[in-house]
Design brief:
Layout: H1 16-28, H2 36-41, H3 44-59, H4 63-72, H5 78-90, H6 94-103, H7 109-121, H8 125-134, H9 140-152, H10 156-165, H11 171-183, H12 187-196, H13 202-214, H14 218-227, H15 233-245, H16 249-258, H17 264-276, H18 280-292, H19 299-312, H20 315-328, H21 334-346, H22 350-358, H23 365-377, H24 381-393, H25 400-413, H26 416-428, H27 436-448, H28 452-461, H29 468-481, H30 484-497, H31 502-514, H32 518-530, E1 539-544, E2 547-552, H33 561-575, H34 581-589
Antiparallel strand pairs: 1-2
Length: about 600
């Protein structure tokens, strides 16, 4: 036992300096963990400092160092326990949080709230409910955490019941329920609750605006945004997304330009908007501007840019973006790998698609679908089927998109019988309900295979009304196989669904012309003029030396048109067989 004498007979000096210097030296020779005096020396300030350090290390991801510090503490208060428990679940170690919570000598409401939050973050919503129900007492934060967690996991009815039971509500409680009602499409109920919030904050406004946008009520979102007193970057970003969904990219860009300090989310919203609206070049320009500001792209940015490269079929830009993916450290991110597979496929490099696929350690159903679709698009029917077999060997369950890709492979290869087998397998073996896109593909396969009447029978047996895409497939087949009666029916259906669709008028006119029905041709052209329908000119493009060249029918405005025509003439001559010598001379003399 350590004994320090300060009696009058003691020879030790008793000055403050002596106590400060001799006492630590004496204490050092004893085991601080085992001696009761050591606990007296661990002051309140020490506990506070340790608690702060534990929290700091946990937030930095160094949970091992935080635990080492926690274990060194001879005195721990409730904050110490709460800090290490929260640190563990925030670093993905919920089970250790749960174990320590069970060992905790004294728990307060913050301890319980931390465990509820940990359960929610770990995807254990039922465990969170158990902790919530076991709490000896709850505060407003407890109710808010539980309600927000239930909303997050789409259990809005349970969240609503808790909200009704809640003794005291604040703006967070109301906002969580507004978000919940908007998520399940109860947008009017969400708005009614939003109007009841006594003091709305920026989050409340943003949640309500986003709810309108997600539920396809952009006009209401725009009106509410105009009423918002202090427009923050989150609300502005939500509106940019809304404008882009409505196809109003110019409005989106104007709002984007008004944001003083743009974050990655706002850049992503405008880049994604342009990419999804077919303005791939603008999306790539915006990426360049983003990089110049010093803002680093995240995986959402890169997926959107790869989508833009796909829409442009620009292999050069796609490869440049792939380099950016590698530099940013996202080469193993599965959504980016999936986007790379699709991009290389659409840019014509099936080999690179397969290489991107092989970089994925554990491909998901989206990865397999992308690869099967790539083989289908390039006409590799057997490779598409082999990929499906490999997918099943890896115990990945196919979905509707998988079978759509398989049907597409049958379409490209002209496999009519096989397409019917796959369609039946999808329904009978895998219990997948076919959608309009599956029927459209099947109708197209049958039509192109000359089985027009069977295709029409499929349309009649469909469990829903055929859309214009399905009727267009049948109409095209009627043109090829000169089926006037079904062609008239298909064209009529398209005109009812899309009165301004010029394609239906043009194809029907061509069917009549091929059948020698010139009076009907005149009628269709007259109807087209009467309805104000104008034929949309088709165009194509190609990229040469980092420049995109556009071409449309009967357009001679390209500066190199004479050279282009000369090259086309040369290609035509090369395609004429050696036996047609007279035709060759005729072409040369013209």
């Amino acid at each position: 036992m350590l004994a320090i004498c300060f009696s009058s007979s003691c020879s030790l000096p008793r000055t403050p300096f002596a106590i400060r210097t001799i006492f630590p030296a004496l204490l050092h020779s004893f085991n601080r963990k085992s001696h009761p005096l050591s606990t007296k020396l661990f002051s309140t300030q020490d506990v506070f400092a340790f608690n702060v350090k534990i929290g700091s290390l946990s937030r930095a991801g160094n949970i091992a160092a935080a635990r080492q510090l926690f274990d060194q503490m001879t005195i721990r208060d409730t904050v110490s326990w709460n800090s290490i428990i929260t640190g563990y679940w925030k670093n993905g170690c919920f089970d250790e949080s749960k174990r320590l919570f069970g060992l905790m000598p004294t728990k307060n409401v913050v301890s319980w709230n931390s465990m509820i939050a940990g359960c929610i973050e770990s995807g254990r919503i039922d465990h969170a409910l158990q902790y919530f129900q076991a709490m000896p007492q709850r505060n407003t934060a407890s109710w808010n955490a539980m309600i927000s967690g239930l909303v997050r996991y789409d259990r809005v009815e349970e969240a609503s019941r808790l909200f009704e039971e809640m003794p005291r509500r604040n703006v967070i409680s109301f906002t969580a329920m507004v978000d919940g009602f908007a998520k399940i499409g109860e947008i009017e109920q969400a708005r009614a609750l939003f109007n009841c919030i006594p003091q709305k904050n920026a989050v409340s406004w943003t949640v309500m605006i986003s709810g309108y946008i997600e539920n396809g009520k952009f006009d209401e979102a725009e009106k509410l945004f105009e009423q918002m007193p202090d427009k923050n970057i989150v609300a502005m970003t939500a509106m940019i997304t809304g404008y882009c969904k409505e196809g109003k990219t110019d409005n989106a860009k104007m709002l984007f330009d008004q944001i003083p300090c743009r974050d990655c989310a706002s850049w992503n919203a405008i880049i994604t908007g342009y990419a999804q609206n077919g303005s791939g070049e603008e999306a790539l320009k915006l990426l360049s501007q983003m990089l110049k500001t010093g803002m680093q792209p995240d995986h959402t940015t890169l997926v959107s840019v790869l989508t833009a490269c796909s829409s442009l079929a620009s292999l050069r830009e796609g490869r440049k973006t792939h380099v950016l993916v590698l530099k940013s450290g996202y080469e193993s991110h599965i959504s980016i790998c999936n986007a790379l597979i699709s991009m290389y496929c659409k840019c014509g490099s099936i080999i690179d698609s397969e290489l991107a696929f092989r970089c994925i350690d554990h491909p998901d159903v989206v990865s397999w679908n992308a690869m099967i679709a790539a083989f289908a698009r390039h006409g590799f029917f057997d490779r598409a089927l082999a990929s499906f077999s490999e997918m099943r060997l890896n115990r990945v369950e196919p979905d509707g998109i998988t079978f759509l890709s398989l049907l597409s492979a049958c379409d490209h290869a002209g496999k009519v019988h096989e397409s019917l087998n796959w369609f039946n397998s999808m329904v009978e073996s895998y219990r997948i309900i076919p959608g309009p896109e599956h029927y459209a593909c099947l109708v197209n396969i049958l039509s192109r295979g000359g089985q027009v009447e069977k295709a029409y029978k499929i349309i009649q047996e469909m469990p829903f009304e055929a859309d214009s895409g399905i009727w267009s497939a049948l109409l095209s087949a009627c043109h090829v196989h000169l089926n006037v009666k079904l062609g008239e029916l298909a064209a009529k259906k398209i005109m009812e669904l899309e009165p301004q669709n010029s394609g239906a008028y043009v194809v029907l006119s061509n069917i009549y012309a091929a059948a020698g029905m010139w009076r009907e041709v005149t009628k269709v052209r007259g109807l087209m003029k009467e309805q104000g329908v104008k034929k949309q000119p088709a165009y194509s493009w190609m990229e040469i030396e980092n420049k995109v060249h556009f071409f449309s029918g009967d357009d001679a405005s390209h500066p190199e048109i004479h050279r282009i025509q000369l090259e086309l003439k040369g290609m035509r001559l090369q395609m004429i067989t050696d036996n047609d010598i007279e035709e060759v001379y005729s072409e040369l003399s013209s």
